[in-house]
């Protein structure tokens, strides 16, 4: 199969998603119904390529010291090694230790800048729980006489993967560059570990962090990583979403390969994308020196 045909597969998927959204809008259903359907469309697509050990769930997340979050649209949860805390009807309550990522989903064309930033705050709440995670090796540490909150205990807690924080939108009112500036300002206000790692807008393009050390996009925001926008087709948006999620899970030691970019990209495509991207971060954002995201 040629590269052209492989890329066309993603464009076909993108067009199918757009058709599904248009179909539910034309049915004149209640907004809650169309919203639920919109979430289902993107989640079902994610489930098709997600490894079976990673469950795609809607629900709330809790930690040892904090109350559960509000219900989140799409949570990537380690289904093989992490138990579900509780199931309330159709809603799962999930411990933070098993959450690898979260995706807030917006459908329809009337999503606002404010709504996307509000989604970012919801994701940041989830990120605030990561410092309270119980290390997988906590029982072994207890047997070894290593007390809670000791340097060794905290070391094992810190190398747990940080959840990836993403927002998806079918479309929104406004333009990508302005959204990028607002997202950059939001990320600057909350710091590196609570930042939104990427925004994917099916009808417009993507807002992602550039790798500060080499050409390419990164799965998590790190110190001095610029935020940039790249206008894209629906198929390219979906490919970037898939690639970023799989890259994160690859870094966490949960999947192989780390995305399908290598199967679809031409030589030098990374350079071309970087040249086409529009930088939206300011110098205050780029000069931050907070600790980098740590993954295993």
Q: Tell me about the biggest sheet?
A: 10 strands, mixed
By DSSP, the count of extended strands is 10
- Mean pLDDT, to the nearest integer, reads 87
Q: Radius of gyration, Cα only, in angstroms?
A: 19 Å
State the secondary-structure class: alpha/beta
- Compute the number of helices: 10
Order of strands, main sheet, comes to 3-4-1-2-5-6-7-8-9-10
Amount of helix: 40-55%
Beta-strand percentage? 15-25%
Query: What distance separates the N and C termini?
Result: 34 Å
Low-confidence stretches: none
Helix and strand sequence: HHEEEEEHHHEHEEEHHHEH
Estimate the global geometry from the Cα principal axes.
Answer: globular
Quaternary status? single chain
Written account of the structure:
The protein is α/β, with parallel strands linked by helices and 296 residues long. It has helices at 3-26, 31-49, 113-127, 138-143, 151-158, 176-190, 234-251, 261-264, 269-276, 283-286, and strands at residues 54-62, 72-78, 86-88, 91-95, 99-106, 164-169, 198-201, 205-209, 227-231, 278-279. Helix 6 (176-190) links the parallel strand 6 and strand 7. The mean pLDDT is 87.
